[in-house]
Write a structure and sequence with these properties.
single chain; 68% helix; 14% strand; three-stranded antiparallel sheet; alpha+beta
């Protein structure tokens, strides 16, 4: 839950001066998680545990997260 005190945005344990800082933190976490999932998927794909369609889906997720962080950084 978001709360605002003294011009600061609080979301869980993190504190941000602006909502843009919060957006950057979220985008960075999303990209990191997308990278982790894609890395695991590549290994699983090589082992035959997942199909091309699942790997492609996780690649698109990573690409979207990468585009999002670029957009957020440009706006900051």
């Amino acid at each position: 839950m978001w709360t605002v005190r003294s011009g600061r945005v609080h979301h869980g344990p993190m504190e941000h001066t602006t909502s843009r800082e919060h957006a950057l933190d979220v985008a960075e976490r999303n990209l990191k998680e997308a990278q982790r999932l894609l890395d695991r998927a590549k290994v699983s794909h090589a082992e035959g545990d997942i199909d091309d369609q699942r790997l492609d889906s996780l690649q698109r997720l990573y690409d979207a997260a990468f585009e999002d962080i670029q957009r957020v950084r440009k706006e900051n």
